[in-house]
Inverse folding.
């Protein structure tokens, strides 16, 4: 690949690792970081650079393992409940005391009956009962730890017990994080249109420190090849790994690949992973360099896939592995052939099986990583998975936490977000994980045993009823329906309603930009019903095909000026300071299997819905009525 090449390849991940490793070796990159001596009490998290041998035994002497009396075992022969033995030759000992010379066993204090100055023993004891022999735990010259072991608290305690006061360990690798871009601004800066906060540096430096490294973030470097080259060379002179943020793709101001190629060796530009495809791997001045994509999810996963294994290798340790589990997908997961697809998922246990719900997959959706309980990799040769299919998931949270997660799938509503926060504040072990797939998608997920709750406000045009007709058609008997709220639905419009929209009929105005909800969403069904009542063809609504998956996303589009109107709830309009044209008030319900009403996992939610303080907080959002909150309607 030439230094000026703008093209991004599709190198398989394993091949990319190999090419980068070969480039590092050819450039003379040190295979390991240096060795330092540290006091044993400061060594946790570091990696041993040499075997650790015991310098003393532990215990260093025969000691009592119990509070009691030290005796000669032979003196207790024949002792029994009916034929006790009275001892006058013994020594009182406490746990940890050296075993007095001449004695070879200990009788627990609870089993000793004192008779004046004598001790009555009612059971014979074998030699060395309740005695910790010298070297029972550790023997002098025993191998305690091999080279390449990452030290834990128990390890340093064992080393100290064995007389080791200082350990030879690999020093912490140093990572230089270099943000680039004319549009990038420091955290806390006032932003103008087009500006972007430098959150990637904050995240990558934290990831490096979490991996046990020392991380330094430079000032933001402007989009200038010469300035970027200088920054990379300066970083390479002091660090063991350089992370160069943004500029790794093929845009006009994407200079990372040509800078690395011009200043050193460009091993790979473009890896067949998603997100993170345009990653750059190379070497400058005998220091590995990773060109990290600018999208935050791509940046985070690039660190996990490429930087973390290298940093472990520099310390001579095995890469840290997360535990994994099998899970069943809550909905269909398509994937493009030719790339390893890293998908963030939420997890919960439903009917004795773990359920994985994919989160939004955009490379810029940082909150999808924040909310993720696990990572699912769809290999490059697989087109995706069907709903209900079993998959392997790498865990970002413990299974114990996942077992206490309430899985809600269906229509989006801010009350569920508020409930999730309130539940966690009351009990940190309780999680409410809601996934927004629309009312119909939630009912289907409940039918298929993939969630505990389905949030629904699905209008049946034929009867005018909400949700219950669909429950009858899809779910049948043994289903409970709990009223969550009544809420106001209407047109979300710009402040002041500049287009003076007053009713659904106004959505057909030429040039108007409407933003819709996805198919299967209750709000989409409501709009279609209102259009049908007026004999309006959806094709006559400009923007009808454009879809968003939440009320907040609809409001965000209007607030950003990318749309003129969208149907949604009043609370979403208020959240963005927008105006609202009322259309209807509708019930929003929670649908679940009857047996789940007594499930301990859901009990905190029912308690919350009964709390007046929570109801007051919901109504303060605007557009909500909690008059029937918690009432069972089916």
């Amino acid at each position: 690949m030439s230094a000026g090449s703008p093209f991004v390849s599709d190198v398989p991940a394993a091949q990319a690792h190999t090419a980068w490793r070969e480039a590092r070796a050819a450039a003379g990159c040190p295979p390991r970081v240096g060795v330092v001596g540290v006091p044993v009490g400061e060594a946790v998290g570091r990696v041993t650079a040499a075997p650790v041998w015991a310098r003393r035994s532990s215990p260093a002497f025969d000691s009592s393992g119990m509070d009691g009396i030290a005796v000669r075992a032979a003196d207790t022969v024949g002792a029994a409940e009916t034929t006790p033995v009275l001892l006058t030759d013994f020594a009182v000992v406490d746990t940890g005391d050296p075993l007095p010379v001449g004695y070879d066993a200990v009788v627990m204090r609870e089993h000793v009956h004192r008779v004046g100055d004598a001790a009555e023993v009612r059971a014979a004891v074998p030699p060395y009962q309740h005695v910790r022999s010298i070297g029972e735990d550790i023997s002098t010259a025993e191998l305690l730890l091999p080279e390449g072991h990452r030290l834990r608290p128990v390890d340093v305690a064992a080393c100290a017990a064995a007389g080791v006061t200082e350990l030879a360990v690999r020093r912490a690798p140093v990572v230089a994080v270099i943000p680039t871009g004319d549009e990038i601004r420091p955290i806390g800066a006032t932003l103008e249109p087009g500006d972007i906060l430098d959150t990637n540096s904050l995240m990558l430096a934290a990831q490096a420190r979490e991996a046990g490294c020392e991380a330094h973030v430079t000032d933001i470097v402007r989009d200038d090849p010469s300035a970027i080259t200088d920054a990379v060379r300066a970083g390479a002179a002091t660090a063991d790994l350089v992370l160069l943020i943004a500029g790794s793709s093929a845009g006009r101001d994407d200079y990372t690949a040509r800078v690395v190629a011009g200043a050193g060796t460009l091993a790979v530009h473009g890896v067949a992973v998603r997100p993170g495809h345009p990653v750059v791997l190379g070497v400058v001045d005998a220091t590995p360099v990773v060109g990290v994509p600018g999208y935050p999810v791509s940046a985070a996963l690039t660190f996990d896939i490429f930087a973390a294994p290298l940093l472990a290798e520099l310390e001579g340790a095995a890469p840290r592995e997360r535990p994994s589990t099998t899970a069943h997908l809550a909905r269909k997961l398509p994937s493009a052939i030719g790339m390893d697809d890293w998908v963030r998922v939420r997890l919960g246990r439903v009917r004795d099986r773990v359920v994985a719900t994919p989160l939004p997959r955009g490379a810029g959706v940082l909150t999808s990583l924040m909310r993720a309980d696990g990572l699912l990799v769809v290999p490059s040769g697989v087109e995706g998975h069907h709903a209900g299919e079993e998959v392997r998931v790498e865990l970002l949270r413990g299974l114990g936490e996942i077992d206490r997660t309430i899985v809600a799938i269906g229509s989006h509503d801010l009350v569920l977000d508020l409930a999730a926060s309130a539940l966690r504040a009351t009990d940190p072990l309780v999680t409410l994980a809601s996934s927004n797939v629309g009312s119909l998608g939630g009912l289907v997920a409940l039918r298929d045993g993939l969630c505990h709750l389905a949030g629904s406000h699905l209008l049946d045009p034929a009867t005018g009823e909400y949700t219950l007709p669909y429950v009858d058609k899809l779910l049948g008997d043994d289903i409970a329906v709990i009223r969550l709220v009544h809420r106001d639905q209407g047109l979300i419009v710009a402040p002041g309603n500049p287009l003076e929209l007053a009713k659904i009929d106004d959505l057909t105005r030429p040039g108007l930009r409407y933003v819709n909800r996805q198919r299967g969403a209750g709000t989409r069904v409501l709009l279609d019903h209102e259009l049908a009542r007026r004999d309006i063809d959806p094709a006559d609504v400009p923007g009808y095909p454009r879809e968003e998956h939440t009320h907040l996303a609809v409001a965000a589009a209007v607030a950003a000026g990318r749309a003129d109107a969208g149907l949604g709830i009043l609370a979403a309009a208020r959240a963005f300071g927008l105006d609202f044209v009322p259309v209807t008030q509708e019930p929003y319900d929670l649908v679940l299997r009857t047996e789940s009403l007594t499930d301990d996992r859901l009990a905190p939610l029912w308690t919350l819905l009964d709390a007046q303080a929570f109801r007051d907080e919901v109504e303060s959002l605007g557009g909500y009525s909690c008059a029937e909150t918690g009432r069972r309607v089916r």
About this structure: The chain is about 25% helix and 30% strand. The mean pLDDT is 93. The two ends are 66 Å apart (CA to CA).
